[in-house]
């Protein structure tokens, strides 16, 4: 992968990444740290959170990490307040977490509603006073290409990602007067160690192969490729972009 430092300089920026201990969230947090930003991450699992914090600290910048169940409003508010105090404000909020509910029971629908959608709403609301004080404020949501097409399985996940993409447009319009940009990234199928597609490669090889066959670029994406899109959308290079959902999928969505 190309170095992010050559294109982006986030020295002096304060970046919060919800769900920043693994996979896409971890890659986004690391990319911002590599580019010079002070970074705060949160996640439920303490072991992965501690490991990610050590990786971030290796880049020499300021790091804040806090355990947080993003399905609980009070925990979100506590993390945002602590992160803003630790970093001295907020310039970028990245809402990356997912409930990963793929069944059709109430539990799956509730997990996706509370984490994929409402955690983003609640974190944005808590961060808004801090973002309003920043001249370079933006919010990034992690949606999915699942938001744009009907699905035979995982309708709860897809429905809440579709709601998140729609929320992105409304939120962007609402916050434009305060010069706060709001965008989303819709990843395609992303593979990383012990991630969803890595597990399916072993447990469901037929599904893994069928999904791969639908990706015109002939491979699964990487978390770092989503992170590069996040850096761009947060940067001054995207200063006139708001209310958009950017697909990063190797053309996967073109296949329906």
SSE series: EHEHEHEHEHEHHHE
| CATH structural architecture | 3-Layer(aba) Sandwich
Instruction: Please give the order of strands in the largest beta sheet.
Output: 3-2-1-4-5-6-7
CATH classification class: Alpha Beta
- What is the CATH homology-level superfamily? NAD(P)-binding Rossmann-like Domain
Shape: globular
Amount of beta strand: 5-15%
Through-space gap between termini: 27 Å
E-strand count: 7
The profile of the biggest β sheet is: 7 strands, parallel
Structural class label: alpha/beta
What is the fold named in CATH at topology level?
Rossmann fold
Query: How many domains make up the coordinates?
Result: 1
| Count of individual helical segments | 8
Radius of gyration: 17 Å
Mean residue pLDDT:
93
| Approximate helicity band | 40-55%
Indicate the low-confidence ranges by residue numbers. Answer: 1-5
List the helices and strands and how they pair.
Layout: E1 14-18, H1 23-34, E2 38-43, H2 46-57, E3 63-67, H3 73-87, E4 92-95, H4 106-132, E5 138-142, H5 155-175, E6 181-187, H6 196-203, H7 205-213, H8 223-234, E7 245-248
Parallel strand pairs: 1-2, 1-4, 2-3, 4-5, 5-6, 6-7
Helix pairs in contact: 1-2, 1-8, 3-4, 4-5, 6-7
Description of the structure:
This protein has a single domain (14-190, 229-248), classed as 3-Layer(aba) Sandwich (Rossmann fold). It is 45% helix and 14% strand. It has 8 helices and 7 strands, in the order E-H-E-H-E-H-E-H-E-H-E-H-H-H-E. The chain has helices spanning 23-34, 46-57, 73-87, 106-132, 155-175, 196-203, 205-213, 223-234; strands spanning 14-18, 38-43, 63-67, 92-95, 138-142, 181-187, 245-248. Strand 1, helix 1 and strand 2 (38-43) form a beta-alpha-beta unit. Helix 1 packs parallel to helix 2 (46-57) and helix 3 packs parallel to helix 4 (106-132).
